Amino acid sequence: MQGRCIQAPEKSNLVEGEIYYVYTHGGLAYKVSGFPRPGSHFGTYQKKRFEVITEEWPLEPSSPLEQLELEEGLVYEAELVWKRDGYCADLGKYFIRATYGCYANKHDCYFYADSELKQPIGRFPLHWFTNIHEHGVEVIKELPQEQWQQMDLFNI
To answer: Of the candidates 26, 18, 25, which has an alpha carbon nearest to the alpha carbon of residue 2?
Structure first.
């Protein structure tokens, strides 16, 4: 959450009127940071020195028991409804596809800004998205390993 300093102590890093990220530290104090990361705090100060501006980040949606399985090679349209504080992607409509290869995971998906999958944005857990439905654009599929052919570049 964020808070505005309303009473800066003498000889401290705080500037009165400045907005900081504040993280609860016990019942009477905040860890104060200039960044949205609790580990980067520069001090611990009394709560009475801050006016809370924004409350806690909303809780992460729970992962459903029956996880939707994305079919490899298909593009889906979905709406991103939650993200962690500090992540750069905006909430809204994206195009997603299943993960594949050595980093395959049924619980995550890659998401893109365009339906041709040319503008990648990232990889988030699938339960952060809602309204998932097939878009209909076919992704170029890799041939199964049994159909691979060795190429000889020297004897063309």
So the answer is: 18
> Using CA atoms, how far apart are residues 45 and 25, in angstroms rounded to an integer?
9
Q: Nearest Cα to 66, choosing from 106, 105, 103, 96?
A: 106
pLDDT number for residue 111: 92
- Residues 6 or more apart in contact with residue 139 via CB below 8 angstroms: 73, 74, 75, 97, 117
Q: Give the start-to-end residue ranges of the domains of the chain.
A: 2-54, 74-138
Q: What is the CA radius of gyration of the chain?
A: 23
Query: Rounded CA gap, 1 and 33, in Å?
Result: 11
Q: Residue 133 is encoded by which pair of tokens?
A: 């439905």
What's the pLDDT tens digit per position in 70-125?
888 888 899 988 887 767 788 889 999 887 765 667 788 889 999 888 999 988 88
Residue 99 contacts residue 108 (beta carbons within 8 Å):
yes
Nearest to 1, CA basis, from 17, 20, 16: 20
Residue 18 Cα to chain centre, angstroms: 27
Longest Cα–Cα distance of the chain, Å, equals 80
Look at residue 137 and give its three-state secondary structure. Answer: strand
* 140/24 Cα distance (integer angstroms): 49
